[in-house]
Design goal:
alpha/beta; 11 helices; eight-stranded parallel β-barrel; single chain
């Protein structure tokens, strides 16, 4: 497991802050949960989330994310079993810190497990995990997943004390919750709230890397709101789902993912050029 003061897995020497974000490729993880949501609305096997994962791979995704919720409102146990068996891209299993989900993760051994907060009453994840307040609860889950060779990520708000808790828990990765930023963007892209939330993300991403954590980000990102986040040099992966599946209704999943990939790459390249100017 990565510890404070060490470089996270995949880190390329010389490409830290101040060396140009374009030098470090930004990965795209595609969350396919809501393909399953549509399937489950009617029952049966269509549309198939595994087929969506294959299309995402062909369109330029670097990984697949799937959240197995306690109530199985979208992904099912069989979906996870098939994804592990049939998809070559790394699978990032989003899961709550429960014994049931731990047992499933240990049985299937996905590439990564992102521990997220979860409650049945929420429509979608409403905020980051309280790693700081829940260290005692989380420690055995992070430890057992890591011992099984599963790369642990904690989905947290961009707050210093949450990053410090991740280090204390010996989690190698954090995923910054971008929900507040995206909500501010929807209200007014030019507003002060957007810049405030972007500043929080920027500072948290830099702090995460300085602590030896690999930094991911996600939740609510769209074609319009993703560029400023993609330009953050310390962020190495974005996880995007609901927007991509929604846009696919109008333009197809393949072209939607390819467009998001292009938007992200363009933003990262432009940031690198501006930094080097």
């Amino acid at each position: 497991m990565t510890q404070a003061g060490t470089r996270p897995s995949g880190y390329r020497a010389g490409y830290g802050p101040g060396y140009g974000p374009a030098a470090r490729r930004l990965r795209l993880g595609v969350n396919i949960d809501h393909v399953a949501t549509i399937r489950n609305a009617r029952g049966g096997g269509h549309p198939d989330p595994v087929r969506a994962a294959r299309l995402a791979a062909a369109a330029g995704a670097d990984g697949i994310t799937a959240h197995l919720r306690e109530d199985r409102r979208h992904m099912t146990d069989r979906d996870i079993e098939r994804l592990v068996a049939e998809i070559e891209l790394p699978l990032n299993l989003e899961m709550a810190a429960t014994e049931e989900m731990l047992a499933i993760a240990l049985r299937h051994r996905p590439h990564a497990a992102c521990i997220v907060p979860e409650k049945r009453s929420e429509v979608t994840t409403e905020g980051g995990l309280d790693a700081h307040g829940g260290r005692e609860l989380l420690e055995p889950y992070v430890s057992r997943l890591g011992e099984a060779g599963i790369r642990v990520s904690l989905f947290v708000d961009p707050e210093p004390h949450q990053l410090e808790a991740a280090v204390a828990l010996r989690a190698p990765v954090v995923e910054l919750h971008t929900g507040a930023y995206c909500e501010a963007w929807l209200e007014n892209p030019e507003g002060a709230a957007v810049e405030d939330e972007l500043r929080r993300l920027r500072e948290a991403a830099a702090a995460a890397e300085s602590l030896g954590l690999e930094c991911h980000a996600g939740h609510g990102l769209t074609f319009d709101s993703v560029p400023p986040v993609a330009q953050l040099p310390n962020v190495v992966e974005l996880n995007i789902g609901h927007f991509l599946i929604g846009e696919a209704i109008f333009g197809g999943l393949d072209s939607t993912i390819r467009r998001m990939r292009a938007v992200m790459d363009k933003a990262r390249a432009e940031a690198g050029g501006a930094l080097g100017a």
